[in-house]
Amino acid sequence: MNELEYKDFYDKVGKVNGWDFSKLKSTSEGVKWHFYDEVVKRCKSSDVLLDIGTGGGENVLKIARSANFLVGVDISSGMMETAQANLAKSNVSNVRFCQLPSDNLQFPAEFFDIVSCCHAPFNAKEISKVLKKGGIFLTQQVSEGDKLNLKTAFGRGQSFGEKDGTLQETYVQELIKAGFSNVQTFDENALVYYERPEDLIFLLKHTPIIPRFGEEKQDLDILKGFIEKNNTNKGICSNSKRYLIIATK
């Protein structure tokens, strides 16, 4: 999903659910890391942090004490409205949010000590421009093999049919070309159990896993068959395949 597709999708979805993914009930097995925990591990109290694709800003607000100053950017106006509302309700004073595309980061050169990006598009050259020498960039992205049984059932889906690892390798090469060194990659393929059919439907309606979900006549029949086939005593099973990239400028 490129940045314009990201903006269009989440602007549309934001008007429907208000970004409240707390309604979704699921459990996971085999999780190797939690992204913002990894960010916090690498933060110093004096650092200035940039979070790209910050969404509603919940994660940045949660880690606000880990850095001196934090900025969250997102291209979606709906996301920004939610982030500003969340900031207003918080007691956090060292966080700012602004609407910016990831390919045009309008900040001074070498302004940030650390840059994070979770499940959003990013531009390696722009990150290199605003990150200090010796600064760290972390990103978690969705692998092509994510929700594979679900996408196979529908015969379509985000990155369906693409070779697993293709985007990861592309990002690695872009980061190296942009001047990053010590580019490390980590992979995770966890099992996810959705508690109820409603949780899976919520996920499909509010994420781009299955494009145009519900707009094709057979979608609900396919979903019903999927649930029957993959229902376990732990819930409706699929997989969550992610990769983590940590790079030093």
Can you give a write-up of this model?
It is built from 9 helices and 9 strands. The protein has 249 residues and is of the alpha/beta class. Mean pLDDT is 91; it is low at 4-19.
Summarize the structure.
This protein is α/β, with parallel strands linked by helices and 249 residues long. The chain contains 9 helices and 9 strands.
Features:
249 residues, 9 strands, globular, alpha/beta, Rossmann fold
Give me the secondary-structure topology.
Elements lengths: L2 H15 L8 E4 L5 H7 L6 E5 L5 H5 L6 E6 L2 H13 L5 E5 L12 E7 L5 H7 E12 L5 H7 L11 H12 L3 E14 L2 H10 L12 H12 E2 L2 E14 L1
Parallel strand pairs: 2-3, 2-5, 3-4, 5-6
Antiparallel strand pairs: 1-7, 6-9, 7-9, 8-9
CATH architecture descriptor text: 3-Layer(aba) Sandwich
Characterize the overall form.
Answer: globular
Number of helices: 9
Mean pLDDT over the residues: 91
Tally of individual domains? 1
Distance between the termini: 26 Å
The CATH topology name reads Rossmann fold
For CATH, the homologous superfamily is named as Vaccinia Virus protein VP39
Proportion of helical residues: 25-40%
